[in-house]
Amino acid sequence: MLHEGHYTHQYFDIKPGHVRRPETAIRWSEGLPAEWREQVIAPLYFDHYKEYLVKAARILGRDEDELPCYCAFCYVLEDEPDPAHPERCRALAYAETVRAWRLRDGRWLIHRLIIHRGEQARARGFFSLSPYMPR
To answer: Which helix (H) or strand (E) holds 5?
Structure first.
């Protein structure tokens, strides 16, 4: 059984579409390792998008030059309910949450968390560096 708040991202709180949020509205540094804090570019504001048809959200933090310096997205894929039991909730098939911070040298520090088949206790989270912002 899928519990709505259990697998969703903390920013699934807007209506579908686009919202611009101030710097204080998004916890952009949450999950950022302390040893990297001085090397990231802090966003001044955020563009927040929520998908209409699926459980998905995306946040882009922008710097003083309007360039992306923070990126976060989350999406949840669910299995179709069993036709023999239409009253049951959809089961989680896959969920992924990504947060990325642009470093002063232009690279992106990316944290990705993946959940398969509702096994949140076995979720795999890892960091990587990339020359590109995740898409």
So the answer is: helix 4-7
